[in-house]
Every structure is written in C-alpha cells, then in structure tokens.
C-alpha cells in the first residue's frame, strides 16, 4: 500500500440556484474575465444570459471565446491565450463540458508563458508552473475536468491527442447545477456515463492492493451510474438522476479514489488514439474498448478483481465459480453499455476499420508499454482494437 | 434534495514516512511554532523526537504545551492562547488525537481575539472569523478533527461540553500515518471505531432524501469499519486495518457525506451530556446510546433506512420482512459493539445511574428539541438514557 498526498482545494457550489455566488467568486481574482464556451447550447438553455447578468452585477469586464469543439484543439487554446495576453485577463470562466474546461485550463497556463501552448504536451513537455485562475460552470457530467487538474488536447496537424496534469490548472471554483444537464441528449448522457465508469474502472482494475474503503466507494459510484444513467435517459429532467451522475463525474477522477495506486490507465490511452484519428465521442470509444480490454486481461491471477466488480456492482451471485462470475461481469457491462444505454457496440458500426490499428497502437504506447492492470505492448493494444471491430 | 457547498482545502499526507514534509509545510506560515500534545504517548512511541528533529531541520522556534486531557477543557485552551499571544506564535502543530486537535483549534482562534475563549461557546457565542494556521499529526483514528473545522470543549465549572464549527479552524495540513496508531489500545481502538460509525450514522439516518451516491459511500465506510476494527484489535500492527480506519475517520466527518442534508445529529448531543458529567470516553458513550436510539426511533415511516443499513452494512437477507430486517440490524450493531469490539453495553456498567438523567436531557436540548432523524424532546432523551441503563 503506497503513501499519497490528498489535496483537492476546489470549492464546489452544488445544486440549483447557486449562480448568485458567481460574481463574488470571480471578483476575488480581478475584474477582467474571459468567458469560454462551445456551441450554442448555453444560449439555448438560457445559461449564457444568466451568466452575463451575474457578471454585470459584479461589474466584471467581459471577453468571450466561443466555438470550442468536442475533442478540443490546440488552435482554440492558442486563441484563448492570445485574448488573455492582449486583454490582460484576470480570470477565466469556462461554461460547458469537459472539452471547454480542458481547453480553458491550457489557455490559463499558456497565458503565463512565452512559448506555444502545444509545447506543454509530449515527451519533452515544458513545465506548467502557473496558470491564471479558472472558474467553471458544468453543463455535462462526464470528464470530471471541473474538479481535477488535467486536460486532453488534440492537434489535427500531428494526429495527436495528448493529456497533461498540473496542479496549477485545478479550478478554483466549480458550479455544479444538475438542472443545467437536463437538455443533454440521451446519446451524450450515455457517453458521459461510460466516461465516468471508465475513470473509476481504470483505477479499480489495478493489481496494487490499496484501501478497501476506496474500493467500496468505487463500487458505490459504479452502482450509482448503473442505476441512474438509464433514469436520466428515460426522464431527462429527473433531478435525482442528474445530480447523482454529476457528483459521480467529479469524484470519479478528482484523485480521491486513487489512494496510493500509481498504475497507468489502460483504456484511456487506447481511446485517445481512436478519437485523435476519427474524432468519435470519447465516452463511446471507452464503452467499446472497456469490455474487450477486460476480456483480454482476464486470467487466474487477476480474476478476484472481476469477482468483486461483478458481485458488488452488478449483484452477481457470489456463490458461482470465480471465472464464471468474471465472465458474467463482462457480459453485464456489455449489456449495460450496448443495450441499456443504447450505445453502438463495435468500431465497425461507427465507421472505423483496421487500417490505422498498427500506428494507433504504436502511438498508444508512445511512452513505452502501458503498465496498467496488465502490461500492454503495442501488439496487445492492436489485438484489443481487433476485438472491438 | 438541498444544495450545498463543498470546500475541504485540507492537504493530507497519508502513509508512512511523510513526516519529512513537516518542516516545509510549517515554514509557509512562519518560524514560531506551538507544539501541543496530551500525555506521554508521543514520547513513548518516539514521535516527539521525530517531530522535534524535523522542526530543528526547518529552523523553527519551538514552544510547547503538553498535558491536554481527553475531553479537553477550556483551561487548556486558555493556556495555549496565552502562549500564542505572549510568544507571537505563527503556527500551531497539534500532535495527538481529537482532544489535542480540538483544543488546539480554539487556541488558534482564541489567539486572534481579545475576549476569553469560552465566549466562543453557547447560545450567545462570539464569532470565529480568524485563527492562526493549524497543522496536525494524528495518533488516534476517531474524531475526524484532522479534516474538519469543529471541536468540542468541556467546562468543568459549568458542567458544559459544547461544540463549535468554524471554517477558519480547518487544519491547513494533516499528517495521517497509520503506523502512529499501532500502539493504540484495544479499548481506544474500539471507542474510535464507535465514534467513526456514529459520525456516519448521524448523517445516514436522516429522513431528507439526498444523493444515493453518498448513501453508498456511507455504507461502504461502515462496512470498512466493521471489517477492520476487529482486525486492528487482534493485530495492532496491521497496516491495512489501521490505514482503513484512519482514512474513514477523516471522511466520516469532513462534510463530504452530508451533501445537502441539514438535519441535526442526535446521539452526539445526548452523549456530550454524559461525558460532560461523567468524563466517560466519547466513543463508548456513543456505542451505548446508538442502538437504543435506533430502537427508540424505529417505526413504519422510517423502517426503510434501517433496511438499507442492515442489508448493505451487515449483509442481512433482503428478502425478510422489513421490520425484521430493521430489528436484526440493531441486534447486529449491538453484537458488533458489545461482543466483537468488547465494549461495555450499559451505563450502569460504567458507573452511571439515573440521578442526572433529567438535567442532562434538558441540557441535550438546550437549543430546543433535537430535530434529527426523529425529533427528540427532553422527555424522549430521558427515555433513551433509561434504555441504556
């Protein structure tokens, strides 16, 4: 059991009608705010007007950058950095899902350095020591970016999609209002659920023994998503369902569940290569990959983890033989993703063939074999992609 | 479901061999440190010498206040305040369990005001707006004071034992090294386990509907304590057991599990009156009270909570009639406290008779009826005390 440091100083306003705290929180950092968002959703649901009204009441000076795309690109980051520098922005306000928040984090960091923001990524990445303060208003429960210090950015020129963590990019404050996710489509709700579950499973499936208490918390969150994602899809304005998904999205990845576990994640690097080349929704890619990865890794040495997962998340009868429980747990996860949530189940269905598997597998292992639950070489990754066809 | 603010900016160094970070953390706040502790335990286990050595390496100037008692008294707080003021202390370092940490919090707050520290308590309590920074090193898993902003202080002159919360008193940093609890006796380990469970159950038994995800976390922590407290008693140097109890102690009361639940706690105010008059161990008082309180409150309107508790914490067969599950859950809790943990089961066994029940019940309701899981009047409290005889 390894030692660890717990340090998550994000303040979260959770629930409806908390937005009147926005002005007071932003004003702690100055007057000049850069508002970042994606498409028209925040205008359609009336959130844009509410935010602008709060900023006006707090006498903030507003700059805007809209059009941040899903799988956000380095070009958007560069635009944001330019505005921050030219306008002397004091604080960034990201309104949206993980893509907007991720991009905003690197704008905040890029505003504090002279070099290009893409130099924060890759093998010889530049350090991220400072960032302008970031406040977020979340509109999609999925990535957990609202309460963690990481982000993932795509570079279409190099077909790279790379992640980076840095404590300086941790949001100061995040507003989590479940009602802001009422308009999220069934498809995006399903992809978000898969993303949340993957964040938990990347840690849960780990051969490092760690705190039982954290295993129980992970199983509890997985059960919560399994229970409430279908409710949110069937009844988009069910507050209880949206609230549970939202708080799980933050706690799946804010670092608490890690304890002292230090193993690499497996499905995320494999998925990033898929969405770097094909621009598929991140959560969908994870849903397709995860059960196949579980199947590929299963053996006598690690079967106990699958048993705990199956018994405690899917209530599989614990008196069955262990291997049967393990296989059943994979089947139940597939049923959940592909039947209950209605996600497509193969790469072929989303228009992806094997033509780039070799290069994607190589890139997924760009820093060496993936030393996660089970060590994966490029050849292993390629075989897992094949299983997803 | 109510809204809430989540804000726990305590940095925690968890695990063995983290104490080399002590100097760097303290130095953020200045050079003059007041070290507070209780009896001789920290010297006996070698912790005192390790701390002093770290302070020396960081070139800190050391002041000391030892002898802080269990159920800490206002007089200790006053002594600490005096040292802080006279010596211009920059930061307080509490080394011990909840009593030492609680007392230290009010020293830190008292050092910032002119009035007597007892004026922080009671109906006309003075505000706590500032406090000197506090760092803690935990040696007992129980109260959770290492990660919350509250504390409880006794005043023998008035036979009062009163609690107070204030964000300013939240520790900046806490060191949680499970090996520092290896020498905790079986009795204190048992009392600590009861205290942790009570903190969770005070929130879990609540008629406000809140996040399912948090219910699952609470059940997971309760299961963790039920599993590992007996292990820690049987094998005092079992790291896994001590680590699980320690991290549960913090998360049982740091505010996370509350979500939007705002109901009053029930067993704690009843217990505080017991230990104000009789000076019994807080956790033992809670262990005696909790099953009787559950029995007193149980009815058709709230039976579902007992069912969830019994099924998810004690694995009681969920196909049984609800009332049977509820009663069985109380029985299982009693067995756990009084047989597995070996705690005394009645007030009479610890030398407490009914002579002060009426006045203690009145004091437990000093701010009005206890509006918790079930509203309790002074007459109800008295009847619950009677059930504990």
Structure keywords:
globular, homodimer, Rossmann fold, two-stranded antiparallel sheet, 11 strands, six-stranded parallel sheet
Tell me about this structure.
2 copies of one chain form a homodimer. With 389 residues, chain A is of the alpha/beta class. The first copy, chain A, folds into 2 domains: 170 residues, Rossmann fold (3-Layer(aba) Sandwich), CATH 3.40.50; 202 residues, Dehydroquinate synthase-like, alpha domain (Up-down Bundle). Helices cover 46% and strands 12% of the residues of chain A. A 6-stranded parallel β-sheet of chain A has the order 2-9-6-5-3-4, with helices on both faces. In chain A, 54% of the residues are buried. At the A-B interface, strand 1, strand 2, helix 7 and helix 8 of A face strand 1, strand 2, helix 7 and helix 8 of B. Strand 2 of chain A pairs antiparallel with strand 1 of chain B, so a sheet runs across the interface.
Oligomer: homodimer
| Overall number of structural domains of chain A | 2
CATH homologous superfamily caption of the largest domain in chain A: Dehydroquinate synthase-like - alpha domain
Largest sheet of chain A: 6 strands, parallel
Q: Describe the global form of chain A.
A: globular
**What is the distance, rounded to the nearest whole angstrom, between the alpha carbons of the first and last residues of chain A?**
38 Å
What class, by secondary structure content of chain A? alpha/beta
CATH top level class name of the largest domain in chain A: Mainly Alpha
Give the SSE order of chain A as H and E letters.
EEHEHHEHEHEEEEHHHHHHHHEEH
Name the CATH architecture of the largest domain in chain A: Up-down Bundle
Low-confidence stretches of chain A: none
**Mean pLDDT across all amino acids of chain A:** 96
Q: What is Rg of chain A?
A: 20 Å
CATH structural fold name of the largest domain in chain A: Dehydroquinate synthase-like, alpha domain
Largest Cβ-defined interface: A-B, 40 and 41 residues
> Percentage of helical residues of chain A?
40-55%
**Number of helical stretches of at least 4 residues of chain A:** 14
- Based on DSSP secondary structure assignment, what is the total number of beta strands of chain A? 11
What is the strand content of chain A?
5-15%
Strand order of the largest sheet of chain A: 2-9-6-5-3-4
């Amino acid at each position: 059991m390894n030692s660890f440091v717990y340090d998550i100083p994000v303040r979260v306003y959770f629930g409806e009608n908390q937005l009147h705290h926005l002005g007071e929180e932003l004003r702690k950092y100055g007057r000049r705010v850069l508002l970042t968002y994606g498409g028209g959703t925040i205008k359609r649901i009336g959130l844009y007007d509410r935010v602008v009204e709060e900023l006006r009441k707090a006498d903030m000076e507003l700059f805007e950058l809209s059009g941040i795309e899903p799988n956000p690109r380095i070009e958007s980051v560069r635009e944001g950095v330019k505005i921050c520098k030219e306008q002397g922005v004091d604080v960034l306000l990201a309104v949206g899902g993980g893509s907007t928040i991720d991009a905003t984090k690197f704008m905040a960091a890029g505003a504090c350095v002279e070099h290009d923001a893409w130099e924060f990524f890759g093998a010889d990445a530049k350090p991220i020591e400072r960032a302008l303060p970031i406040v977020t208003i979340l509109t999609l429960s999925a990535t957990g970016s609202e309460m963690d210090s990481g982000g993932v950015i795509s570079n279409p020129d190099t077909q790279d999609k790379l992640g980076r963590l840095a404590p300086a990019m941790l949001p100061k404050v995040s507003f989590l209002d479940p009602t802001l996710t009422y308009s999220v489509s069934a498809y995006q709700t399903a992809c978000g659920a898969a993303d949340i579950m993957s964040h938990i499973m990347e840690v849960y499936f780990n051969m490092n023994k760690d705190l039982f208490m954290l295993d129980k918390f992970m199983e509890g969150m997985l059960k919560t998503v399994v229970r409430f994602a279908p409710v949110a899809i069937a009844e988009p304005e069910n507050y209880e369902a949206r609230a549970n998904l939202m708080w799980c999205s933050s706690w799946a990845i804010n670092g608490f569940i890690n304890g002292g576990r230090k193993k690499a994640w497996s499905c995320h690097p494999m998925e990033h290569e898929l969405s770097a080349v094909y621009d598929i929704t991140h959560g969908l890619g994870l849903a397709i990959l995860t059960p196949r990865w579980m199947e590929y890794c299963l053996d006598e040495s690690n079967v106990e983890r699958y048993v705990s997962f199956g018994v405690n998340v899917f209530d599989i009868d614990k008196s069955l033989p262990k291997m049967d429980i393990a296989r059943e747990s994979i089947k139940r996860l597939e049923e959940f993703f592909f039947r209950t949530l209605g996600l497509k189940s193969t790469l072929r269905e989303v228009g992806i063939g094997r033509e780039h598997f070799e290069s994607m597998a190589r890139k997924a292992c760009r820093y060496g074999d993936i030393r996660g639950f089970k060590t994966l070489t490029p050849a292993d990754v390629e075989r897992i992609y094949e299983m997803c066809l």
